Backbone:
C-alpha cells in the first residue's frame, strides 16, 4: 500500500519536474505546480542540523530536564530513528559526509594532523564534490543555507559556491577566533566550566556572512538561533513557488553557549538547556510555518546533529544518554545522534531501530527527487525511502567509524568491532590496537559494556571481511585539513 | 480553567460517593453512577508496577532498542514525569512505601541486616499500616491486586489481609526459592550472564497464589505476564460497576527473565527486551480494554517501577539511561523511575519535570476519592492533583534517600547532598561518610558527574537543616525484615 504510494509520489514528482521545467522557462506565466494537489507536488527538503548535541539531549530521547515539546511532537508524528549515525564524530568531516553522501576520507575532509577546519586553514570542501544542493538543483530546486558551514571560509569554499543559492551564517565553529590568550591546553576546557559565565560574544571574533560578504564581526552570538529561524522561515516563504531545499545548521549547543534574552534562564538544565530549548522553539516555528503555508504535506523535515556531546566541556556539554563516550570518539556516543523524520501524510509514523546515516540523505533525496546519483564516484549513502514511506527494510547494513584517516571500528548488523580505540581530548593520547578487536552487540548492549569477542569470533571474522572489502575499495582523498597557518591552541 | 475543572471533578466525586453510598446500601436496585455522565463518575485507579525496570528502559525515556509503542503513547497522551521517585531502591521497602504512602523505615520495612523479605522471613507489612487499598475501601472501591506482592508471604500478610478483595500472583521475587546449589557469592551473578540461557522455571520453586491458596508451584514463569494481563482485564470488567482500584505488579523484568513463546526473540535487545516489550503489550491491552469499555475517561492509570536496574546482572539487567548507578544504590539510577500518568480528558498532557514519588499516590488518590488521609501517623505522600489536573506546582520539594535504615542522601529542590555513599552488591562494602556531603545539582547535572560542594556551601546548609528536621520527626519502626530462618546466599 505504502510502497504503491511511494511509486505514485515518484511518478508525480517526475511529472512535477516536467511542469516545473516548463514554468522555469516561462516564469511570467505563473507556477503550474501551485494548481495541483499535494500528491502531485515535488517534495521539499529541510535538514535541521544541531552542533554537538548528544543522543540523549532531547526529551523524546530521554533527557529528564530539557524540555523539547516541538521535537517530541515531530518524533511522535514522524519517525524517530534510534540507530541514526553521522559520517564522523567531529564537525568538518561530519558536515562533508552529510552534504556529499560520502565518507569524509574520500573528499579529503579528514586528517590525522587536525580534526577540523580552522580560521587559518588553507582549504575547504573541493569543488569536485557534489553536494545535496547541487544534486537537487538538477531537479530545479531552490537551495538555501542558514547557519554554520565549516567546510571552508574562503569565498570559493562558501555555500554559494557549493550549490546553494543563498547563504546566511558563520563559516566555522562559534568558539574559533577566540580573542583571549590561553597559555595551556587545559585552559581551553576551563573556559566552559567555572569560568564560562564571564565570557561574552566579544571574546570571539566570529564573522557572520550573507553570501560571500561579512556583514557583522564579531557577531552577536546571543541572537543567532532567533536570526537563523527568521532567515529560514523568510527564505522558505520567498522560495515556496519552486521545490526547495533548506539546510539549517545551528551553531549551538556547541560552546560558547549563548541564548537570547527571552530564553536565558528558562531551563532547569541551566544554560545548555536554555540553548537547546531555544532550538526546539525554532524547530516548532518552522513546523508551524510549514503547516500554516500548506507546505507540510509536501515537505520532509529531518532533525539531527553533527556529532555527540563534547564531554570535556563538562556542564556546558550535552549527554549521549546511555551511549558510551561522545564527540571525537568512535564509541556510539560520538557517532549516534537523534534522527527525526517528519512529513505528515507521507512518512509512516514509527520508531525505527534500523541503521541510517546522514550520508543516506543525499541518496534518499536524490531518489525522491528523481535525480540519478553520480556514477563517477563512490557514494556511501543508501536510499532510506523503503523505511520512510513503507514497511520496507533499511538497505543500510554496515557502518564505518573513522577517527581522522584511520578506520577504528565497523558495525555489521548488530555487531560492532573496535580494531583501534583512543582516548579523545587527552593530550598525547595514542592509538591502542586490539587484536582480536573488541566486540559488542550494540543492539543488545547499546552502552558497549560487555566485550564478547571471545564468545563470537565468527562475528569478528564477518566484520573483518567487510572491512577488508571496504579498504580495498577506498580511494582516499588528500589531507586537505592539515594545511594551515600558525597553530591554534586547541583543535 | 483546569483548576476549576479539578474542583468540579472533586465536587462530582463527592456527589458520586453519596450516590454510591446509597447504591451500596441498596445494591439490588442497580448502580446509580452508571446513569450519570463521565464527569459525575468517581475516578478508578490502576497502578501498573514493573520490577527492576530502569529509568532508561522505555522508548519514550530513551532506550534505542526496546520497542514500547503503548507506553510511548501513554506518555504522549498523558503526563511523562521525569523526576519521579520510589521510596527505596529495592523491592520490599519500595513496595511498602508505594502502598502506605510512608517511608519504609516508619513501617519497619527497612533493615540493615537484609534488604528485602525472603521465603524464610518471619514477618510482613504490619497490620497497623493502612494501604491504598484500605484507604480507597473507605470510599466504597473494589480493590484487586495481580502480581508480585513482596510484603510478607504468610497468610496474614498477603494482599487479601491488607485491603485487597482479590489477589492473584507470587508472594516474593521470582529468583527466590532457587533450587540450584550455589557455592559462592559470585555464582549468583553468573546465573544471569553466560549461564542464564540454561535456566528453566523449574529452577525456582516459586508459588502462585490466588487469595491465600497456593495454586501452582513451581509456577510456569514464562506465561506470567500474559496471565497477569488476563487476570487484570477480567477483574476490571467484573468489577466495573463500583469504582475500582487495581494494583498490577509484574514480577518482571527482575531476573530470571522468561517470556512467552510469542514474545521470545521479538526484541533486538535480546531476552530483556522481549520481556519489556511483552509488558508493553500488556499495558496496551489494558489501555485498549479501558477504552473499549468506556472506562478510560474516568480511570487514572499510572505506570512506574519499584527501583532502578540491577546492574550486576549485566546483560539481563536494565538501564538507568543517563542516570548514575542503579538498584540498591542512593544515586539517581536507583531511585528515579519512569512515571507515566494517563487519564484521557482529565490529565493535562505534558512532560512534568517537578518531583513526585510513588508515596504521593496514596495521598493523591485519597484526595481525588475524597477520603481524608490518616492523621494518627506521618504520611510522607503529597497530593499531586494540582500538576495532574492543572497548571499548579508539585508540593513535593524534598526527597530522602535511605539505604536500609540509614539516610544516605537528601534532595531539596534541584540540589542533592550525599552524606553517605556505599558500593552496592559488592561483598563487604562499607559505608563511606562525606563531610562536607557530596553536592550535585541533579536538574543541571542529572548524571551526578560534578560535585559542587565547594561552590555551594549554602545549599548544603539548607539541605542539612531539612535533614535535621526530618530526623527529629522520624519515629522509626522496628526492623521487621531482619528476623528470619537460615541465611539465603544472596539478598
Residues:
Amino acid at each position: 500500500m505504502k510502497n504503491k504510494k511511494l511509486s505514485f509520489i515518484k511518478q508525480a514528482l517526475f511529472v512535477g519536474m516536467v511542469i516545473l521545467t516548463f514554468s522555469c522557462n516561462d516564469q511570467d506565466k505563473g507556477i503550474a505546480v501551485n494548481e495541483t494537489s499535494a500528491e502531485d507536488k515535488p517534495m521539499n527538503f529541510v535538514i535541521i542540523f544541531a552542533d554537538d548535541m548528544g543522543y540523549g539531549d532531547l526529551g523524546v530521547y530521554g533527557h529528564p530536564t530539557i524540555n523539547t515539546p516541538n521535537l517530541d511532537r515531530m518524533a511522535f508524528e514522524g519517525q524517530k530513528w534510534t540507530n541514526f549515525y553521522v559520517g564522523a564524530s567531529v564537525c568538518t568531516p561530519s558536515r562533508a559526509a552529510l552534504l556529499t553522501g560520502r565518507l569524509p576520507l574520500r573528499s579529503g575532509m579528514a586528517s590525522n594532523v587536525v580534526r577540523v577546519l580552522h580560521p587559518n586553514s588553507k582549504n575547504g570542501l573541493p569543488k569536485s564534490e557534489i553536494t545535496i544542493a547541487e544534486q537537487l538543483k538538477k531537479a530545479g530546486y531552490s537551495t538555501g543555507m542558514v547557519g554554520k558551514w565549516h567546510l571552508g571560509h574562503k569565498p570559493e569554499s562558501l555555500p554559494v559556491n557549493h550549490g546553494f543559492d543563498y547563504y546566511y551564517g558563520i563559516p566555522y565553529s562559534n568558539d574559533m577566533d577566540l580573542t583571549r590568550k590561553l597559555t595551556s591546553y587545559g585552559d581551553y576546557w576551563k573556559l566552559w566550566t567555572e569560568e564560562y559565565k564571564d565570557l561574552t560574544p566579544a571574546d570571539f571574533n566570529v564573522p557572520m556572512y550573507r553570501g560571500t560578504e561579512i556583514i557583522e564581526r564579531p557577531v552577536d552570538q546571543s541572537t543567532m538561533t532567533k536570526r537563523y529561524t527568521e532567515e529560514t522561515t523568510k527564505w522558505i516563504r520567498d522560495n515556496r513557488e519552486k521545490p526547495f531545499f533548506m539546510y539549517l545548521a545551528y551553531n549551538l549547543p556547541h560552546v560558547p553557549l549563548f541564548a537570547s534574552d527571552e530564553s536565558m534562564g528558562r531551563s532547569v538544565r541551566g544554560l545548555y538547556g536554555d540553548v537547546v530549548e531555544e532550538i526546539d522553539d525554532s524547530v516548532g516555528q518552522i513546523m508551524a510555518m510549514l503547516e500554516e503555508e500548506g507546505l507540510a504535506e509536501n515537505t520532509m523535515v529531518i532533525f539531527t546533529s553533527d556529532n555527540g556531546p563534547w564531554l570535556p566541556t563538562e556542564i556546558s556539554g550535552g549527554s549521549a544518554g546511555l551511549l558510551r563516550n561522545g564527540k571525537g570518539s568512535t564509541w556510539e556516543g560520538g557517532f549516534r545522534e537523534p534522527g527525526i523524520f517528519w512529513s505528515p501524510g507521507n512518512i509512516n509514523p514509527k520508531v525505527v531501530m534500523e541503521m541510517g546515516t546522514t550520508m543516506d540523505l543525499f541518496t534518499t533525496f536524490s531518489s525522491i527527487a528523481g535525480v540519478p546519483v553520480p556514477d563517477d564516484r563512490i557514494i556511501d549513502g543508501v536510499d532510506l525511502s523503503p523505511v520512510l514511506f513503507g514497511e520496507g527494510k533499511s538497505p543500510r547494513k554496515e557502518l564505518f567509524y573513522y577517527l581522522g584517516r584511520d578506520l577504528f571500528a565497523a558495525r555489521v548488523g548488530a555487531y560492532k568491532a573496535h580494531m583501534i580505540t583512543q582516548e579523545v581530548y587527552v593530550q598525547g593520547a595514542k592509538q591502542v590496537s586490539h587484536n582480536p578487536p573488541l566486540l559488542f552487540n550494540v543492539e543488545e548492549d547499546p552502552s558497549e559494556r560487555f566485550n564478547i569477542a571471545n564468545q563470537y569470533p565468527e562475528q569478528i571474522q564477518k566484520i573483518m571481511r567487510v572491512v577488508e572489502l571496504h579498504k580495498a575499495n577506498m580511494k582516499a582523498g588528500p589531507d586537505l585539513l592539515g594545511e594551515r597557518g600558525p597553530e591554534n591552541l586547541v583543535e
